[in-house]
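Q: Hi! First time asking for a complex rather than a single chain. Here are the components, and I think there are two in total. Is that enough to go on?
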Amino acid sequence: MNKTSNAYVLVFAVAVCVVMSTALALTANALRPAQEAAAEFDRQKNVMLAAGLIRDGDRRPRAELEQLYAQRVAPRVVDTRTGEVVDGKGPKDVEGLNKAAAKADKADAHRYRTVEIVKDEAGKLAVIVLPISGRGLWSTLYGYLALEADGDHVRGITFYKHGETPGLGGEVENPQWTALWQGKRILGEGGQLESVTVKKGKVDPSRAEEKAHFVDGLSGATITSNGVTEFVRADLRAFQPYLARVTKS
Amino acid sequence: MTATATPPAKTPLFGGDEKKAILDPLWDNNPIALQVLGICSALAVTTRLDKSLVMGAGVVIVCALANVIISCLRNLIPNKIRIIVQLVVVSGVVIVFDQVLKAYMYDLSKQLSVFVGLIITNCIVMGRLEAYAMGNPPWRSLLDGIGNGLGYAWILAVVGAVREIFGAGKLLGVQVIPQALYDGGYVNNGLMVLAPGAFLLLGIIVWVQRAISGYVEK
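A: Yes, that's all I need. Here is the structure of the assembled complex.
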């Protein structure tokens, strides 16, 4: 066969592509259950990290951590419009609820959201973990913001999925940076929502307002920092009715 | 160097050429120290030993498998599109490796992030395909792939170990520098955590390796 003819080159190229894509599709399919389980475990770990149940670099085996999650953390589906907990629904039903709500009113596409409640050993509400997500520079960031039971002080923050530049915007994962959020307050003196702002530059601790509501910016990642400020504020606003209810009771 | 007078049936399974294929890249013709290839990933993923080891394993596997596949196809691949065919094979193997990492080593996969995908562009892999697998039989290409992968991996492991010990005081996540030293005023070296630290280390390794192996630039 003439190996330099265009026909041969074409046939060979197509054959290589078909064989390769079949092989990749088969592996991706075979590995999907394991990948989804791993991603779900990673999500659970981040909820516990934000809530301070575990520390970064915890070396306990996976089964033990999964058990800890099952014991101490409980998901609640929240109607963000009224702030009420929807009884008898789990995280899996959220998509369906939102679709139904969006049909009635387009603005309601994200009306139902899952909150994770963390109880202390005595079974009392200790931490409320809220999902946060929004645009950074290149990607949508996904994370958790944990609030103390007073619905005001920040317990912790984590980001578990994003596509920001490693070393710049990717530093949102850096434990040294996320530690800066601990103890910040989301409510102002009058009880109104102030949220937490990622500042450009360093926080001046001598000013009470900055000390309570600002964290240091990520150098070289202004757009990611601004994005975090914005979506944290938006998500906190969405959860205000719920937080008001929880803290009152 | 492939042609020998003896008929194929009599060539030993592990003769001089095979030995050379796997041992040469470990020291005398090391891809990082002598050819100075694959430097970018060597700087980026070596902040911790476990990351370096997984990255090294990835390159060994990718290099070996791609070498074997290309070597099997070497008489069929049209010369006009050989580079693109090599690229398709390398990408395929890397994607499979990335998927396996995502399924079974999720944390590490997240930390290595783009750098696993970037094995595709690692000059060592393509270099071996073009320079060796296109002209040698599969068995020897396999050894050559493993040898070059290991030549890259051991340097990564050394850099990773030094950076983790002096940058974080740990090795594989276990504290090795005793608390007593920290109490006495010892601090972790911040330079080791940053890419320039790896750059300096690599330079020293290349220097020491060349001094011992007696390599002279021609």
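A: The radius of gyration of chain B is 19 Å. Let me know if you'd like any chain examined more closely.
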